[in-house]
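User: Can you write out an input/output pair for a complex, sequences first and structure second?

Assistant: Here is one pair. Inputs:
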Amino acid sequence: MLKKEFQEVLKQSLVYIGLSVGIPLVLKVVLAKEIGSYFEVFFLMYQYSLLLFSIFMGLSLFLPDRNQRAEDYVYSLPYSRLRVLVMKVVPRLAAVAIFYLLFLLLYLWGGQEIIMRSSFFSTSWFYWLLFGISLSFSASADSYLKVGGATLLGTLIFLVLFTFVPNLIIQVKGGDLHSVGLDVLSLFKIDFSYNLVPFLLVCLCLMLPFLISFVLAFKKWGIQSKENYNKGFLKLFVPLIAAGFIVSTFFVYVLRVRDYPDYYLTANHRLIETSPYSTRLYGAEGVKLKYSKGGFSNFFEDEAHVYGTHETRRSVYIVRIDKENHTVETMGKIPRPKIKRFQYEIRLFRNFIAIPEHFHDDQLRAFVFIDTRRKTIKRMKTADVLPPGYKEPIIFGADHSNGKIFWLIHGRLDRYPIIKLWEDGTTEKLGMTRWAPKYFNRMLFTFQGRVMVISKITDNGLEVIRKIYYHKHISLKSVHRRINLYPVSLKEVYGVWWQKGGKANYVRLDLETFEISPVKDIPTSHFFLNNLNGTIYGIKFQYEKDEPGFHLKKLYRLEEGKLHLVKEFPEGKNKKKSDRFWISKGGIVIRQNKRLSFYSLPGMKPLKFKGFD
Amino acid sequence: MIDVKDLSVRFGGKTVLDAINVQFEKGEFVTIAGNNGAGKTTFLRTLMGIVTPVKGEVTYDTGISKGKIGFMSDRSGFFENFTLKQGIDFHSRVYRLDQFDDTLLRHLGLDLKTKVKHLSVGERVLFLFSLVISQKPGILFIDEILHTIDPYLREVFLEHLLEVIDRFNTTVITVNHTFSEIETIPGRILVMEDGRIILDESAEVIKTKIKKIESTGEIPGDIPVLYKKEVLEYNEYYVYPFSEELRKSFDYQFRDLTLSEIIKSFIGGYYVKKRISRGS
């Protein structure tokens, strides 16, 4: 019996192989140059046809016997029903596994260049899911069409429940898909790289009811009467899937997502460790503060405080920690939509925090201004303060005049309109720029083609200081922490112009002489600049598609167009997905192979924190 | 040898077998008859373990393994793309048969390279029968296949069946609509109606219990009539249960019936009852 089933599956597999190899060949011959290489076409077709193959393998468990009216003969053989089932499932499972292995090998061999990793993962997931569900429904009806329909319905039930579980937890617990460990970006693009455990748990809890109901119903009721079998199947399936849903929801609820913390080193060398569930502040002697309400993100700091945001289901809290006294204080909160991804960019200027409040659809709702000294919040509806047609407004600068603060905002039309928003809500138009404007040393940098216009903002508008012509458009780099609009006096800024193919050409702009000079020895890839306390650092990092994690390779100081190597970091042997590094005013935190090391800036002295030995 | 206790089967909401209790002895030849939909095939499949009862059980003698039970379905289904040789090999492997008796296949002049799908209905039945008898079956279930094959093959089939019964003392339980060929085989008759057994007698006894009267007029109500049939200028009355007392009391000629006529009268009686219950 087993041999016969293997022979049957072998025949079906050979037909599948023939089609998988043959159709791309025909396409390649017919369409010639209009499509990619044979391997590309073959691999893509193989990827998608695999899903059909897995469904077919599941569906064809009983139907060939039924179509040949051989069921009576098969079930009168001296085998138990369970043994018949095993003998039918084993060859199909083997075929499904072999074709999956082939897919994996093809992916490793050259498929990685053709499809993204997420596509490989989601195909893998769907492949096994469809096999399991089609197998579960293989005895439900007499025709491929009906069993196929049942499989689609089953898949739909699975997917609805699968997406419902994390969303239910988010409703109850707050957070987002990422924080519950199920970052299902869409049905066809699933990010497995983040956390496999909750994903597998939910899959298992929701998949087992299908398979258990199938095996038990087949064992107990047989398939001679469809009514009896399907009734029996449903009798088992309904409570089991309900239990699976409850158990998976419970798992996700209680599960602490395996998430490595993020770090921030303050200017006075305090270490902040934050994860989705808690935040801790460490001094050299150990923990100074525990904050158990949740994790922080969007760190920024002034002389006395470190600020961060802390999200719950309904609100985003702006919280600050006193760097010396280690106390926590909530400055204010802004509402957030329940499920939708919420984006916000925070700006700090003097004692004011500005937050453009907008949702994932990029519709700006309001500007929120928090006065950290007076502890007051002011919310200005964008419709009241901005002219119509402004899209995605960004606060790119701030300054003061006659004792009043104003914010500089640019929109995103075909050009960039610049607006000055006073703290009382009144606005002034400052003009247009071809590219994103910058504001350094109380000077506004705007662009008209290859002309960079540097202006002063006066009470009467703009006063042009200098126009600089360059043979290419220069994009001034955001090397100054964008969050902090604190007016640090700068000697120089850096910019790039791009060659075809994405190669960056660095230039230095002297803010005293306004001279532009090329900078040649800056690496053009896996490199970024960061201005920390007025010193510009160049960071060379390593990130390879096939290697896990991000690795800090070299740290430079950039002065007058020249890179000075500060420290070179040795390449670790055991690279992990969790490998990362963080750079802030106070220094650098490096996590490599799950071990942490800390260096102060500017001296690069090793730092020690009790509990991280 | 086969003990059926309180056996009930339901398909969906419909009761197909209704609390059947019956025993079959070793070497018995049992014919199950009844109208279409009476539950005969389901009963046979339940005995074979293909259909699961909602209640009750079927127990076999401890000496009988499943490998010694042969089943010939009315569907005569087999793996269509197999050649006869492949079919024989498959069956021999599954049942661990030392040798296969190909007398029947040779008798039919069948080439072992022929595919099952190319066999005629009769050839297919005899092929399946030759597979089953190779098991040296202790029990053999045969479901309504005699009427599907031509008279010659039917004779061949029955000859071999009788030989099997002789050689292995096989219990044969068969569902049948045609009785002319098995009339001579002494055995037991079960008649089923609406999932129940309404008659369970040996063929010899049943022939004494049912008689036929032909009369141009109505017969007295004291005579129990199972089924009345109008035939041109006279009526046929099937009297059941018949006793010799009736022959003494009434001046009618009580005629003997063939098995086929007996079964037909039971089935006819069922349809009359059904008509009456529907009020037509």
